[in-house]
Design goal:
This protein is mainly beta. 6% of the residues lie in helices and 43% in strands.
């Protein structure tokens, strides 16, 4: 018997149910958040992201949120986590972007926060070919169910991004 099986048996015997792998968020539950709720340090003083600049979309049979950065160069979306996260868990983020173009070279900044803690960030050069971003994020702290999850995208140029989800794999 391995240590994970033993721990699961101990938890069940003590009346505790081990946490299962699954989604951290619901893709269709994102809401744009205010400046006071946004933990990102690079939020501009003025943010304009009109209705229709981001929306739910079926992307090849998978739920996603599409973001049109030609209309919305900065977006912070938030929602409460669907489950608790424990130190040692791994988050699997799935993010897709079409080819990134702009008249002026630069970079896009994407980030993920949990309970106001920066879990992961990346800078993507513009221009870039289309691509999938799939980091494995190892969590180094505990966060309760309902903790705020924030997705941050800061991009210039007429580009399209699709946020596909975040799944939790338990230690």
């Amino acid at each position: 018997m391995n240590s994970h099986t033993f721990l699961a048996l101990v938890l069940v015997a003590s009346g505790c149910t081990p946490l299962e792998d699954g989604p951290l968020i619901a893709v269709d539950a994102w809401e744009e958040i205010s400046a006071s709720e946004d933990p990102a340090a690079d939020r501009p003083d003025s943010v304009s992201c009109p209705v229709g600049a981001w929306f739910w979309e079926d992307l090849a049979g998978e739920d996603s949120v599409e973001i049109d950065t030609g209309l919305c160069s900065y977006l912070a979306l938030g929602q409460p986590s669907l489950t608790e996260v424990q130190q040692g868990d791994t988050l699997h983020l799935r993010l897709w972007h079409l080819a990134l173009y702009s008249d002026v070279e630069g970079e896009a900044h994407v980030a993920l926060f949990l309970d106001d803690v920066l879990l992961w960030e990346d800078s993507v050069p513009i221009p870039s070919e289309a691509g999938m971003i799939r980091p494995e994020i190892h969590v180094e702290f505990d966060a309760d169910e309902g903790s705020p999850v924030v997705f941050h995208l800061h991009n210039h140029g007429f580009n399209t991004w699709n946020f596909l989800g975040i799944d939790v794999t338990r230690e």
